[in-house]
Amino acid sequence: MSEQVQDAFAFYSEYLKPLYCEIEARDNTIPVEMLFEIHAAFDHLRRFYVNGDEETTSTRRAIGHLKRASLDAFKLKLKYFNADLERLLGLGACLELVDNGSFIEEILRDKQKIIKIAKQARIDESKNDPETAFDTWIQTSILIDETTEKILNSQVHIDSATIKAKNWFNKDKFQGLWIGFLSGFLSSLAVWLLTR
After folding, report:
1. Spatial separation of the C-alpha atoms in residues 165 and 23, rounded to whole Å
2. How confident is the model at residue 131, as a pLDDT?
3. Nearest Cα to 22, choosing from 13, 33, 14, 30?
4. What angle do CA 39, 43, 47 make, to 5 degrees?
5. How much is the average pLDDT of 140-147?
6. CA distances, 147 to each of 49, 134, 157 (Å)
7. Which parts of the chain fold into alpha helices (H)?
8. 3-state class of 89 per DSSP?
9. pLDDT-derived band of residue 144, with 50, 70 and 90 as boundaries?
């Protein structure tokens, strides 16, 4: 199949641009590796228009660079997701209060699925099978989106569970201080009475 320049722009619009926007929205920066790949892609298109290179070859090479930029974005998305998930899991026992513990179980199952699919995507990449790797990374990305949506939809419950757990901890701590104080006072009183 002979590719045309419009195919490169279609790939950019359909795949890379949404990923690019998602990564940029994270912290208002774009990784330089993605920018290098995008620059290289448009340089191949320039060669077609300015240097007269063959359209199919220029387009195929441009799409190759756009796919590599997309793969970089998928990996960043996975990295950011894992960091966010670790922060969430750092809440510990509070999460067991959400939906009677079913929320955390579901999130941990999703995490394992994401790891499994992302591992397969990396294996596909290492076999120089970019088409399969790209498809597997798309599956990973979709599962990350679904899991993130579950977390966001449960955020009110997570916040509530965190507040309850902190209140319980503070009450227990406060009660422990009073019990310690009372025990110390009674022990001192008993020693004073015995040694009098």
Report:
1. 33
2. 81
3. 30
4. 175
5. 95
6. 43, 20, 16
7. 5-11, 17-27, 32-46, 55-89, 102-126, 130-153, 155-194
8. helix
9. very high
Token pair of 94, please? 């509070």
Which residues have a Cβ under 8 Å from the Cβ of 111 and sit 6 or more positions away? 85, 147
Residue 3 phi, psi dihedral angles, 5° rounding: -90, 150
**How far apart are the C-alpha atoms of 109 and 98, rounded to whole Å?**
16
Task: Give the number of other Cβ atoms within 10 Å of residue 190's Cβ.
Answer: 10
Cα 180 from Cα 166, distance rounded (Å): 21
Q: Please state the pTM of the whole predicted model.
A: 0.75
Question: Which token pair is 155?
Answer: 């955020």
Task: Write the CB contacts of 196 (distance below 8 Å, at least 6 apart in sequence).
Answer: none
**Residues 71 and 125 sit within 8 Å (Cβ to Cβ):** yes
Q: Convert the pLDDT of each residue in 76-100 to its tens digit.
A: 999 999 998 888 887 765 777 677 7
Q: Which two tokens stand for residue 134?
A: 């790209």
Of 36, 34, 55, nearest in space to 44 by CA: 55
Instruction: Fill in the DSSP letter of residue 196.
Output: -
Nearest to 133 by CA among 60, 67, 82, 78: 67
Upper half-sphere CA count for residue 18 (Cβ side, 13 Å): 10
The pLDDT, as a whole number, for residue 146 is 94
What pLDDT score was predicted for residue 168?
53
* In the predicted structure, residue 6 carries a pLDDT above the cut 90: yes
